[in-house]
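Notes continue from the previous slide.

Worked example: a multi-chain complex. Inputs as given:
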Amino acid sequence: MRDGRRGICVVLSSDVKFLGPMRTMVRESCGLLGFEAAACEEIVLAVQEGCANVIRHCYGNSTDRRIDLWILFHDHELEVQIRDYGTFVDPKTIKSRPLEDVRPGGLGVHLMKKVMDEVKFEQNEAGGTTLTLRKRVAATDENETGGS
Amino acid sequence: MALDVRREEIGEAVVLNVEGSVDIYSSPELRGELKAALDKQAPRIVIDMTGVSFIDSSGLATLIEGLQKVKGYAGDLYLCELSQTVLGVFQLANLDHIFTIKESREAALG
């Protein structure tokens, strides 16, 4: 990529059955970018939660909508963008439940925030939501010298 | 990998042997098997997660629901044989102290 970032972009259907193959792709991509296995699993979890939220909340479980997923790496930082074309989710309305209130649900955003350095929801130009997840890693020769 | 749940009865315990990924796609299958054990008010339910490679918040929600229901009739629910990755997700959600997690299937069967 000309801006110096390396990575991958895929378009997913908003169908939960495709999240398994998506996870495989994210896991392998993060491995190629030099992340250790444990960090790859954390990123996979965060992307899973982000995509599942889009399907459930932005698309109301419709299976034929579009999700753009970008995984980019530059300057010791991984950036994941999950872009939907549905209803914008106001970040102010997105709350994790208190962990001491043990009940089903309400953990997705909490998990994303625990494993990523930054979690940001913004309205995109299509009127939907772009979720940006960032995670920094220590520099290694391997993860800074690969080709575009 | 899809989810496979195999149910067996050992004494008074119902053991669910789970293999694959427990996520928003597959967790309804686990919920169904769990419901069968809960409906018969099995005194001890053991979920053997030896073959579970991934769990997300939907999977956790399914297990929390099961735990709440089993407590409703004073039964026990044990989880066992969690991989480090799966245990890590429970720890992130502070659920490792809520569930009774045993290292081995034998320990869970008591």
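Summary box: Chain A has four helices and five strands. The CA atoms of residues 123 and 129 of chain A lie 5 Å apart.
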